[in-house]
Write a structure and sequence with these properties.
Blueprint (H helix, E strand, L loop, with lengths): L1 E2 L11 E3 L12 E3 L5 H11 L2 E5 L5 H15 L3 H5 L8 E7 L4 E11 L7 H4 L6 H29 L9 H5 L6 E7 L11 E9 L5 E6 L5 E4 L5 E3 L7 E5 L1 H6 L9 E4 L6 E8 L6 E2 L16 E2 H9 L15
Parallel strand pairs: 3-4
Antiparallel strand pairs: 1-2, 2-8, 4-12, 5-6, 6-7, 7-14, 8-13, 9-12, 9-14, 10-11, 10-13, 15-16
Helix pairs in contact: 1-5, 2-5
The structure holds gibberellin A4.
Length: 330
């Protein structure tokens, strides 16, 4: 239930009623990428939750800490400096407002293309004293995370017994892949401590439109995922692991077998949360439809669309909307 709290400075944000204290969920599937057998657990996790945590991921911790410190440095700049990198659409700095359809959150962020060549010129001014340092940190991190995402997608294809294990990963590997990178900063919100039974929304509930999302955060809680019964569970933060989301496009390609997970972030009253997310997407012209080999005897739940069509439709919707509804077969 959404509740409006009548406190002038905060009333523009969204709140949720929350009577229970935060309890962490211990049932999040844990996938060890160094074990080939993990492919079966991976498939199970994507069917049950559309969400899991990975360890032994092969991404150097140095890449993670370097990019995190660059992100922290950026978000610590005076507002006037950060504004030089706005607006966020399609790429740049944004604050409070998410997307272009009226969603707001207790968050500021940088949206970037994951294609290295085209990191916008506008941003280089912001990384003032040393733009190359930021660019390198971003490049190292995104390359390593993309490689891991492709390995995971190949293990998924194996686990699903698909002949071509690159069916999913090739979409991210494509030069024209429409992948996005996001740095989020959720400042602490001390005022919410007074609101005992309410939590403020950092980033409202939604599913990710792409194929796969790879999230890493600092040690601050806030991320929640929605279970099939509609309840929300808190994900214990783990700065040395990655969290993987199934996106809408992967749900479609698996004809609904894998679930695109609904998730959100709640504001924290004490500690800042910093997260970095790689959204692996296909090229814009790519046709998205259930894979024939996964449909034996089944009917397609979705009509075919291009990623361009889906993205256009998703980007003109509100965060919480069910974006796949328009593409379901009746
Ligand atoms: C959710 C996943 C990614 O963060 C994102 C978001 C995008 C945006 O911030 O501009 C959207 C959201 C996301 C889905 C619905 C639309 C578009 C905000 C919004 C209200 C970058 C993406 O690809 O889709």
């Amino acid at each position: 239930t959404m509740v409006l709290v009548h406190k002038p400075a905060l009333q523009q944000f969204s709140f949720i009623r929350n009577i229970k204290p935060t309890t962490f969920f211990s049932g999040i599937p844990l996938i060890d990428l160094s074990k080939p057998d993990s492919k079966h657990l991976l498939v199970k996790a994507c069917e049950e939750f559309g969400f899991f945590k990975v360890v032994n991921h092969g991404v150097p911790l140095e890449f993670i800490s370097k990019l995190e410190s660059e992100a922290v440095k950026f978000f610590s700049l005076p507002p006037s400096e950060k504004e030089k990198a706005s607006p966020p659409n399609p790429f740049g700095y944004g604050k409070k407002s998410i997307g272009q359809n009226g969603d707001v959150g207790w968050v500021e962020y940088l949206l970037l293309t994951a294609n290295q060549e085209s990191v916008s010129q506008r941003l280089s001014s912001v990384f003032g004293d040393n733009p190359e340092k930021f660019r390198c940190a971003l490049n190292d991190y995104v390359s390593a995370v993309k490689k891991m995402a492709c390995e995971i997608l190949e293990m998924m294809a194996d686990g699903l017994k698909i002949q071509n294990r690159k069916v999913f990963s090739k979409l991210l590997m494509d030069e024209q892949s429409d992948s996005v990178f996001r740095l989020n900063h959720y400042p602490p919100c001390p005022e919410i401590q007074a609101l005992k039974e309410h939590n403020m929304i950092g980033f409202g509930e939604h599913t990710d439109p792409q194929i796969i999302s790879v999230l890493r955060s600092n040690n601050t809680s806030g991320l929640q995922i929605s279970l099939n019964d509609g309840s929300w569970i808190s994900v214990p933060p783990d700065p040395s692991s990655f969290f993987i989301n199934v996106g809408d496009s992967l749900q479609v390609m698996t004809n609904g077998r894998f679930k695109s997970v609904r998730h959100r972030v709640l504001a924290n009253s004490i500690k800042a949360r910093v997260s970095m997310i790689y959204f692996g997407g296909p090229p814009l012209r790519e046709k998205i439809a259930p894979l024939p080999s996964l449909m034996e005897g089944e009917e397609s739940l979705y009509r075919e669309f291009t990623w361009f069509e889906y993205k256009r439709s998703a980007y003109s919707s509100r965060l919480a909307d069910n974006k796949l509804l328009l593409f379901e077969r009746i």
